[in-house]
Amino acid sequence: MGVDYSYTQPSESEHYDGNTEESAYSETDELIRLDQAELSYNCPEPHQYPPQPEVEFGFPQKCYCGGDPLLETCYTRNDPGRRFYTCENRDDGDCHVWKWWDVAVMEEMRAMDGQTRELAQKVDSLTQMSDHETEQKLANLEMIVSELGNKNQRLTNRFEMVLAAVGFLLVVIGMVLMFK
């Protein structure tokens, strides 16, 4: 048959269209570097928003960008009618809030359950602790009430004495005027 199908790699010294392999790679690298420089000049870096706890947990109050979250409905085949939070600025390409509504509700309910348990524990500790303290406070209040009653009685007695003295003076003046 006589046909030679062997293949050899070209050497580095061989020239193709006047270029060596090294010069072709360096030109390609230079073009890539120029394209990247042009892209970074024309397209500024996107904003990197820090995580915010009010977005990460429960009902989102604000988006990472500062916008107000919107409650929308999903119309996909996998989640038809499922509600979710998103941002009014979601189409600008930056990072924005996106969260399923039912997940946010469950997070809020777990938080409220924890707060309710804490409050119940505080109420229980107050009812157990207050027996001795309540007795002391009640004794103090009874003492204050009795002191106020004594002062009131003394004032009432003084007032009655003043009224009696004024009445006696009026009787004396009346008698003097009658016998005059």
From TrEMBL:
GO terms for MF: zinc ion binding
Instruction: Supply the alphabetized keyword list.
Output: Membrane, Metal-binding, Transmembrane, Transmembrane helix, Zinc, Zinc-finger
- Name the PROSITE patterns for this protein: ZF_GRF
Q: Where is this region: Disordered?
A: 1-27
Residue ranges of every copy of the GRF-type domain listed in the record: 63-104
Residue ranges, compositional bias (Polar residues): 1-11
The source's domain of life comes to Eukaryota
InterPro entries for the chain: Znf_GRF (IPR010666)
Q: Which residues cross the membrane?
A: 161-179
Per its record, how is this protein called by name? Uncharacterized protein At4g04775-like
Q: Which organism is it from?
A: Raphanus sativus
Its taxonomic path starts at: Eukaryota, Viridiplantae, Streptophyta, Embryophyta, Tracheophyta
